[in-house]
Amino acid sequence: MRIYDWNSLNAEQRNQLLQRPAQMIGESITERVNSIRQNVLANGDNALLDYAKQFDGVSLDHLKVSQDAITQAKNHLPDELKQAIKQAYANIFALHQAQKPVDVDVETQAGIRCQVLSRPLERVGLYIPGGSAPLFSTVLMLGTPAKIAGCDKVVLCSPAPICDEILYTAELCGIDDIYSVGGAGAVFAMAYGTDTIPQVDKIFGPGNSYVTEAKRQVSMTGTAIDMPAGPSEVLVISDEFADADFVASDLLSQAEHGADSQAVLVTSSKALAEQVALRAVQLGEQLPRFDTIKQSLNHSHIIIAEDIASCIAISNAYAPEHLIINTQNPRQYLNDIRHAGSVFLGAYSPESMGDYASGTNHVLPTYGYARTHSSLGLADFYKRMTVQELTSDGFASLAPSVACMAQAEQLDAHKLAVTLRMESLKG
Fold this sequence. Notes:
By secondary structure, this protein is α/β, with parallel strands linked by helices. The chain has helices spanning 11-17, 27-43, 45-56, 67-76, 79-97, 136-149, 164-173, 183-192, 209-219, 244-255, 270-284, 290-298, 308-318, 351-356, 392-408, 412-426, and strands spanning 2-5, 104-109, 112-120, 123-127, 153-158, 177-180, 202-204, 224-225, 233-238, 262-267, 301-304, 322-326, 342-345, 382-390. The protein is globular and about 90 Å long.
């Protein structure tokens, strides 16, 4: 990891340092994903079965996972892992249960009652990546709030063969149906429906560049998605009192997500910066995914700033997905943080805790979207609607203002709907 002195950089160099690795979603990926979309629309389940064989190397005769397969998965897992998953589930459930929306009911003026009510989404689809690191923890993050919200139908898609951990966790969360479908095809199947897979209203979950592009495409044709996606990232703020091994391990845990992940350290200590740069390599070489880590570290870096206030300013400009503040008394800086997906305070709050089991959600805005988007929460599984009810007296008191405004906007029918009622009341 290269070390940069922030004060020695000009404005252009600083801006360049805060850029993310380029996302590899080019024209060729867009065209390929569009062809998958057309195939799924035309051939439905048959297209999905073909893709399972082509991309996952699995020949399937059906897409839906049977209850017998789920039961077998449960029996295969060691009790220690099942207990760990249950503990994580309990913590995630507790925090998301506390987020249940409270309806608003206000009399804005005499005779005029306005409400804001929340209703759960009816049908949601969860996409869980498979491959070398099947993310059963993401099942917890998506399935738990979906069921707390009371969504009528919750379905899950994951590439075949679906690992035992994903099947067990899905049943624990109360997922209604599980399908052995992966990649862009799964996104299109959930967005448009097939003979086997029901159409959903909103799709949640991470994925590779093909999944990301598929989610973008369906979001333009009426299916909602959770949030824009990009490579995962962490920014660590540390002072001279931080443990270099702790900081290095936090950077490495982010870097192992993928070659396009980014890990950034911003510190007020030159000595710590040099120690972390050394220890990141020494510790990383001991890890089985070091080849991936090396690629990630090539576009990760360490920034030396004048003080912690400067470190926070740099972090706010970067708007990280994960922000770790590993300093003395880190909570004193929390009010100064404006843009971050999830914040981890103190030496014993590594990102790993939030990724798995502390209770916060690990589905977070990346690629700078933390400036405008929030971490996933229970509210994402609801929609709001407003209600208004006016008595005749309430109507009469507000009607002149509404008629005046409608006339000013030259919307005569709007004015007519008011004046007719005014005349009726006078009569």
